[in-house]
């Protein structure tokens, strides 16, 4: 990937235009020197690097290391004269990271169609539905659609399991640049409230964006202090989009629609309740293991089939159809793509040979997604015993501990609480807090693999086991590190075989 490089003066002029310079540029700053790299990781620094001092865990030692490796200037909210490097002082480092990244990577989102999906639940499923559709559409040209999601990332060069829903600005723009250089026409991405609040996507142009829903989540001292902050952060996506697609059925849907209409030149709506929506879904029903529904959607009007379980996925499919309607994707590609679509770690269903024990691996991790999951499971598996295995992350989204405890306790016959990215908190302490809100029989097993094993082997009658929160992830956050672990899918498959082997004993 070849990039056009710019002198430091161009970056300083950009900061001036943004109104972010907090002090006159220092004497001796070489504005004519070419910036070879923009980085906030001292380990990546090469001679000619413009170094960015960012993050709650930033230490002056990082800047000193960057200077030793060849950085020639740095951007920061605070000066560090001991570094010996000239400082470009800015008012808010968070607001300049993305514009500087866009500049360095030559504004790559303008060279393809980036589609953003935001919402409290359904982001991953909608993004993957759209990716399957676009892959189908692009296949005759030998192309694929890129994806940046909470599950994985594929940009035409890099493919890996993701740890952030939306990457930090330099990583995000690098992925866009890779995709553009690889000839990708489309890239679909999940856009988190944190990314919008802290300006990670600033400067990114979305060809289209979908707003799915809003629920009470991510409320904590280190995320959103209250619901309004969360909601307003989500709405920021409209100002960056050429087309906005809005769910009329969600809470605060009218407010979201008004915000989209005020900020975006073109708006499409989707709904299962309002026949006047641009995309109206109806006649939803099961057909064997598949889900069929009708969509009234202009040139995309027709019958659609989903082979992924979960009746709630029709809402996500309607969002994908609305995006395709706005992007001009033909109906055949939409129909075939939706029928083929699979989402790793989302409503993955596994059973023993006789079907007595069914395990569902899903990413549900907040009140809204829990309530939706239980409704769907009770509808699709009536009368079955329900066992739920989950935990809550450390130092974030504290309301989940009460919310998920209440919802699981009201809908399960047994709850098994376990590790789920506890980070710097103690797993057992988190589980005890959740347990205080669980109204059904409940046990704590901090080892996630053992928790899933206990849930599976506890089955003495037809049962559904819901294993939520991690999906297909293969790492646990312990302390500040991510530790490799088997995925919930691997655990389930192993313990279903063990259950089968033990059933005759």
Task: Please specify the SSE layout and strand pairing.
Elements: H1 8-17, E1 37-39, E2 49-52, H2 60-69, E3 71-76, E4 87-89, H3 93-104, E5 113-118, H4 123-138, E6 146-148, E7 152-154, E8 159-161, H5 169-181, E9 186-190, H6 193-197, E10 206-211, H7 227-235, E11 244-247, H8 253-263, E12 267-271, E13 279-287, E14 290-296, E15 302-306, H9 313-327, H10 331-340, E16 348-351, E17 357-362, H11 367-380, E18 385-390, H12 399-411, E19 414-417, H13 427-435, E20 442-444, H14 448-457, E21 463-468, E22 475-478, E23 481-484, H15 488-502
Parallel strand pairs: 1-2, 2-3, 3-4, 5-9, 5-10, 6-9, 10-11, 11-12, 12-13, 17-21, 18-19, 18-21, 19-20
Antiparallel strand pairs: 6-7, 7-8, 13-14, 14-15, 16-17, 22-23
Helix pairs in contact: 3-5, 4-9, 4-10, 11-12, 12-13, 14-15
Walk me through the structure.
This protein is of the alpha/beta class. It has three domains: about 10-105, Udp-n-acetylmuramoylalanyl-d-glutamate--2,6- Diaminopimelate Ligase, Chain: A, domain 1; about 110-340, UDP-N-acetylmuramoyl-L-alanine:D-glutamate ligase (3-Layer(aba) Sandwich), CATH 3.40.1190.10; about 350-500, Protein-Tyrosine Phosphatase, Chain A. Helix content is about 35%, strand content about 20%. It is built from 15 helices and 23 strands. The strands form four sheets. It has an eleven-stranded mixed β-sheet with strand order 8-7-6-9-5-10-11-12-13-14-15, sandwiched between helices. Strands 16-17-21-18-19-20 form a six-stranded mixed β-sheet, with helices on both faces. Strands 1-2-3-4 form a four-stranded parallel β-sheet, with helices on both faces.
């Amino acid at each position: 990937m070849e990039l056009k490089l710019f002198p430091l003066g161009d970056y300083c002029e950009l900061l001036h235009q943004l109104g972010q310079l907090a002090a006159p540029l220092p004497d001796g700053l070489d504005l004519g020197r070419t910036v070879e790299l923009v980085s906030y990781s001292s380990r990546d620094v090469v001679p000619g690097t413009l170094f960015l001092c960012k993050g709650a865990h930033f230490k002056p030692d990082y800047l000193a290391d960057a200077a030793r490796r060849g950085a020639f200037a740095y951007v920061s909210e605070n000066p560090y004269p001991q570094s010996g490097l000239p400082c470009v002082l800015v008012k808010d480092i968070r607001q300049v990271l993305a514009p500087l990244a866009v500049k360095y990577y030559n504004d790559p989102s303008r060279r393809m169609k980036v589609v953003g999906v935001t919402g409290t639940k359904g982001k991953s499923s909608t993004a993957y539905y759209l990716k399957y559709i676009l892959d189908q559409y692009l296949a005759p040209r030998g192309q694929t659609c890129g994806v940046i999601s909470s599950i994985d990332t594929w940009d035409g060069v890099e493919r890996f399991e993701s740890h952030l829903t939306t990457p930090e600005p330099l990583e995000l723009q690098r992925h866009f640049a890779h995709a553009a250089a690889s000839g990708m026409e489309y890239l679909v991405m999940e856009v988190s409230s944190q990314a919008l609040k802290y300006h990670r996507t600033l400067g990114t142009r979305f060809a289209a964006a979908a707003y799915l829903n809003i629920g009470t989540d991510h409320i904590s001292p280190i995320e959103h202090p209250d619901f309004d902050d969360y909601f307003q952060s989500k709405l920021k996506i409209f100002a960056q989009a050429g087309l906005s697609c809005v769910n009329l059925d969600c809470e605060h849907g009218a407010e979201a629609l008004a915000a989209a209409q005020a900020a975006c030149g073109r708006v499409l709506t989707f709904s299962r309740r309002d026949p006047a929506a641009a995309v109206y879904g109806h006649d939803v029903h099961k057909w064997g293991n598949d889900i069929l529904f009708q969509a009234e959607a202009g040139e995309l009007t027709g019958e659609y089939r989903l082979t992924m379980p979960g009746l709630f996925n029709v809402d996500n499919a309607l969002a994908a159809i609305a995006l395709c309607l706005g992007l001009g994707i033909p109906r055949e590609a939409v129909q075939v793509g939706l029928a083929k679509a699979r989402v790793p770690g989302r409503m993955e269903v596994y059973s023993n040979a006789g079907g007595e024990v069914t395990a569902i691996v899903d990413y549900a991790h907040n009140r809204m997604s829990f309530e939706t999951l239980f409704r769907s499971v009770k509808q699709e598996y009536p009368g079955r015993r329900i066992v739920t295995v989950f935990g809550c992350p450390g130092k974030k989204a504290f309301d989940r501990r009460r919310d998920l405890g209440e919802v699981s306790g009201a809908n399960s016959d047994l709850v098994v609480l376990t590790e789920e990215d506890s980070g710097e908190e103690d797993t057992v302490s988190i589980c005890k807090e959740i347990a205080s809100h669980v109204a059904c029989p409940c046990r704590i097993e901090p080892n996630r693999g053992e928790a899933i094993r206990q849930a599976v082997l506890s089955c003495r009658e037809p049962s559904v086991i819901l294993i939520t929160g991690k999906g297909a992830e293969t790492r646990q956050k312990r302390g500040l590190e991510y530790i490799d672990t088997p995925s919930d899918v691997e655990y389930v498959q192993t313990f279903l075989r063990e259950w089968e082997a033990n059933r005759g004993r």
